[in-house]
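Thread: Newbie trying to understand structure tokens

Hi all, I'm a second-year student working on a class project, and my supervisor (Dr. K.) asked me to get a predicted structure for one chain before our next meeting. I've only ever worked with sequences, so writing a 3D structure as a token string is new to me. If someone could post the tokens and maybe explain what I'm looking at, I'd be very grateful. Here's the chain:
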Amino acid sequence: MKRHPLPNTSQGLRDIRPLKVVAVHPLDQDGEELLAQLRRIGCRVCRFWPAPAILPENTDIVFMAIRPETMSKPLPWLEGPGALPVIPVVSYENPIFIEIVIQLNAYCAVPSPVRSFGVLTAIAVSLHQHKSRVALERYAQRVTEKFADQRKIQRAKSILMETRNLTEPEAHELLRSRAMGQRQPLETVADTILKAHESLHF
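---
Reply by user tm_fold:
Sure, no problem. This is what the structure looks like when written as tokens:
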């Protein structure tokens, strides 16, 4: 069985301590315990209730009490490619609350009542999984852009083949020589050819 190297735990803790954490939670017993645990870890904490429309600048992670009033209004910072990791604080295990946790794309949750253990683990797991997801999304974006560039180059070659009666290798060589002469990427030259062709046939 292959063994994976253990992560540098002390480095992981050093990464967590300077985090800026937003706690969307009432100032009840659970809220006070959550704030105490976050401050004990060393995080900088801001508390809001109800949930704010805009998060403070440079927020790293959000703890949010799952209550009907929490999800009653749209929160822009929960959506989009730049959405931060959210750790739900869950009081009940019923279908509605479970569905909310799933919709939040949460990697883990903290049960209520909040205890002196579990908060640090939730942060570490959420940050690790969030970084992995962001890296995967960036990779997928690069692959998508690469395929788009390849399609653009292929279309430009087809135009050159049709308008200049060239073979595909000749069209590719013409594109390549233009790119080298203009000191531009191949896809940039291809894009210029496509736009010129479209303007002539508008």
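A couple of things are worth pointing out once you decode it. Residues 138-200 form a domain with the Arc Repressor Mutant, subunit A fold (CATH 1.10.10.10). The chain has a mean pLDDT of 86. Feel free to ask follow-ups in this thread.
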